[in-house]
Amino acid sequence: MRAYFYDNSDSDPKEPHEQLTTVTPEELRNLGVLYWHFDGDNYLDKINNIAKERNYKNRDEINVSEEGLGDSYESKLKIFFQEHLHEDEEIRYILDGSGYFDVRDLLDRWIRIAVTKGDLIVLPAGIYHRFIVDTNNYLKAMRLFKEEPKWTPINRPADDNPHRLGYLQSLRDSGLYK
Asked: Is 84 annotated as a binding residue?
């Protein structure tokens, strides 16, 4: 996993858009974004342990590629890349391929998080974010859910959404956000 400030240019969003300013895992944790990397054959045991600790009850897999999504590939990518939030955590373990999760920091800047095989990322409910595959146009991920699988994006602006307000309150409670 690499994280850095995204330059937000109008060029291809599948390109890295990497700037010199990196973002540390601690800075991501301060935003509520959690990250692990699991290599090797026992990755499933580690995911199962995290699922038990965090009360994730369900899972499925998604293949974000032309082959996996068929005719809806381009339209799905546009939906994934539209800035949004969820009322549940977004949990993804990257089984294969690569892509980018972009999240907003406390100053409303984009942070790009490059993920590859073995990365597990948790985005908190209420954080503004978006997703795109990289130029390889392929990512296979395990999605974990606390309840029945659902993926309902709430596009920005959603500043009055209770989960957005709860997210901001959690940052205030931690002393990171005024």
From this structure: yes
Using a cut of 0.70, tell me whether the model's pTM lies above it: yes
2-173 folds as Jelly Rolls (2.60.120)
My answer on whether omega of the bond before 157 falls inside 30° of 0, hence cis, is yes
As given in the structure block, the two tokens for residue 110 are 């984009």
Question: pLDDT for 54-78, tens place per residue?
Answer: 999 999 999 999 999 999 999 999 9
Query: How far is Cα 165 from Cα 112, in angstroms, rounded to an integer?
Result: 23
- Is the CB of residue 85 less than 8 Å from the CB of residue 102? no
37 annotated to bind ligand: no
Asked if residue 17 belongs to a known ligand binding site, the reply is no
For 79, which DSSP code? H
Distances (CA, A) of 6 to 18, 68, 78, 114, 151: 6, 28, 18, 11, 25
Is 26 known as a binding-site position?
no
